[in-house]
Amino acid sequence: MTVLKLIRDCLDALLHPSARYDALTGARHRAFMAPRLLGSLAAFAAFPVYLAMRGAPTALEVAAFAWLIAPILLSWFLSRTGRYESAHVLSSLALASLVMMVAIPTGGIESFAAVWLVAVPLEASLSASRRVVAFAAGLALSCAGALIVMGTFDLLPPMQAGSASGVFTAFGIMSATVYAAALAFGAESLSRTGVALLNSEEDRYRLLARNMSDVISRHRRNGAVQFISPAAEALLGTPASRLLGHGLFDRVHVADRPAYLTALSDAARGGEARSVEFRLKRDAPRARGAADFIWVEMRCRPLEQATTATTDCEVVAVMRDVTDRKIQEQALDLARTAAEQADASKSRFLATMSHELRTPLNAIIGFSEMIAQEDVLMIDAARRKEYAQLINDSGQHLLSVVNGILDMSKMESGNFEISPEPFAPRGALLNCCNLLALKARENGIDLVTRAGEDLPVITGDPRAFKQILLNLVSNAIKFTERGGTVTVSAGVEGARLVVRVADNGVGISAEDLKRIGDPFFQAGKTYQRRHEGTGLGLSIVKSLVALHGGEMTVQSRIDEGTTVAVALPLAFTPPVEQPPSNIATLNPAARSGHKTVQVKKSA
After folding, report:
1. What is the three-state SS of 415-473?
2. What does the DSSP 8-state code read for residue 245?
3. Torsion of CA 450, 453, 459, 463, to 10 degrees
4. Mean pLDDT rounded to a whole number for the chain
5. CA 393, CA 376: separation in Å to the nearest integer?
């Protein structure tokens, strides 16, 4: 084993660099050099023994032994150039030349050496090249034909008769047989090495194909699939055989098919890698057997081929499931949108508060300064009383703004206390309308009340009920033009009391209608408002209604009016959880998601 290892190490040192990293090519180069080097060295070692036994050699014997240097030169040629086919061509020429050199003076086609012409194509078969084998076969036939022609026309030199011719014939046949057997063993060894390497590579690629999550596929330019790895079954929940041809294309989302085909076409025609993301239908293993779509990223590039008849070539693609990444991207987009809305809400809140607080504060400061300088300005008692009333009105307005913010904060944090008790809704409704009748008359608006005397007693917080009505009716009066009408009606529908406040005012656009009830939101542009207010009225109404287990609906059209309907249960049932609100700036504790309603029982 040590000798064989030493010989293999020496052969490995002689390998051309191009053959050192390819196991099959290295085995072929070693199979070419080993018998030639060992045979030549053995022949040179036996040459002195031959001379001692036979005596002075003839010219033919000297030429034959001199030829033994040719295999060494061929091995050197292969070691330096790595040109395997060329080395086999030169070896065929050298062997055929030796056979002709020995056969011509020893009987031509009948010579013991002529049988060695059979070994010429056999030796070339180890090259695994059809061109080399064809060349060697033609060379052997040409040499055999030349010997036959020379023997037919007596062109061969005379051969001395002797009993040794039979011995030489037997030696030639035996040696040729041994050499052919050696070639057969070499071919079998190379074949076994090739099969082993092929099985090893196949096992390696099978391991990758079966265990990697990415899907590898081979496509034509039109998208037809010629091969797809078994990972597609785990990705799409369907056998890989059903994805061949246009089976994969049929699963691509209709909106993504142009991008899918464009990527494959560009990769096939342009010779550059392409990347595309698209949706694929997956057969989800669900009870209903429903199908859904997943996002995949496909990177495709042209398939490397030795020769191509056209400019277009096939494409190899790698597909990867990126659904989780897409979900994260969508979550980031939603978070970004929410952040932008929060920033807009903050700007709107600051603009609204600055307007609502600055206007009454300016009035308070201005009129108080005038009262403080009444001697200089010579203000009479009537004017002083008027200024004091304006200061009081401005202070009351500031107080209502602050109370609204505090109420909204309490509702958001779940600390708003309600005291449910039985009360008559008709009396509370009429009382609220009477409070706002003067304001409606000053604005030239007709306030109509429709509440039957048979309205039943309901259980709820009467203070909250009045606040709901005051906010709704005052809003309706505020946004109704002079000469308009505001109608307040109440009735029982099923187990609920339904109060409707309708007006024929300016109305609300469909875009703004979606956000009605959001804290600090007012329809129209914040910086071009025609009416005062913090935008908390409907938001407070919405929260108070929800605290009673009811619901609020708004219907409106531009320039036609608005109708707000509030449905409250006749029997109060406290909700399990306070409805979510869009305010996140007033009370940070509200972000925790744990909200409770404090219900205060009346005595």
Report:
1. CCEECCEEECHHHHHHHHHHHHHHHHHHCCCEEEEEECCCCCCEEECHHHHHHHHHHHH
2. B
3. 50
4. 79
5. 25
Query: Strands 215-219 and 315-321, how do they pair?
Result: antiparallel
The secondary structure element, H or E, covering residue 116 is none
How many Å apart are CA 312 and CA 268, to the nearest integer?
5
Residue 528 class from Cβ within 10 Å (0-12 exposed, 13-18 middle, 19+ buried)?
exposed
> Is residue 44 within 8 Å of residue 70, measured between CB atoms?
no
Q: Taking the chain, what is the end-to-end CA distance rounded to the nearest angstrom?
A: 107
Q: Helix, strand, coil shares of the chain as percentages rounded to 5?
A: 60, 15, 25
- Token pair listed for 436: 């706002």
Residue 496 corresponds to which amino acid? R
Tokens representing residue 310 in the block: 């056209």
> Among 384, 397, 385, which residue's Cα sits nearest to residue 358?
397
- Nearest-5° Cα angle at 436, 435 to 442: 125
Cα separation, 356 vs 44, in Å, equals: 115
For β-strands 485-493 and 446-451, DSSP reports them as parallel
At 204-243, the pLDDT tens digits run: 777 776 778 889 899 987 788 999 988 888 888 888 889 9
Q: How far is CA 63 from the centre of its chain?
A: 73
C-alpha closest to that of 475 among 502, 499, 515:
502
How far apart (Å, rounded) are the C-alpha atoms in residues 478 and 529? Answer: 12
* 3 state SS for 275-290: EEEEEEEEECCCCCCC
Largest CA distance in the chain: 166
The pLDDT value recorded for residue 146 is 92
| Cα atoms in the Cβ-side hemisphere of radius 13 Å centred on 189 | 15
Q: What is the mean pLDDT of each run of 10 residues along the chain (603 residues)?
A: 76 86 85 84 78 74 76 90 92 90 86 88 89 93 92 79 60 78 80 83 76 86 86 87 91 92 86 88 61 87 62 83 91 90 74 69 83 76 82 77 68 68 89 84 90 88 85 86 91 91 85 62 48 63 84 86 90 60 33 36 36
Residues 545, 418: Cα–Cα separation, whole Å? 11
- How many residues in total does the chain contain? 603
DSSP β-bridge partners for residue 296: 278, 321
**19-77, pLDDT tens digit by residue?**
888 888 888 888 888 888 887 887 777 778 777 777 777 776 777 777 778 888 899 99
Q: How far apart are CA 371 and CA 366, in angstroms?
A: 9
Q: What is the pLDDT of residues 95-118, one digit of tens each?
A: 899 889 888 888 888 888 888 899
Classified as helix, coil or strand, 183 is helix
Residues 377, 381, 385: CA angle, nearest 5 degrees? 100
- Helix 84-103 with 59-67: angle, nearest 10 deg: 170
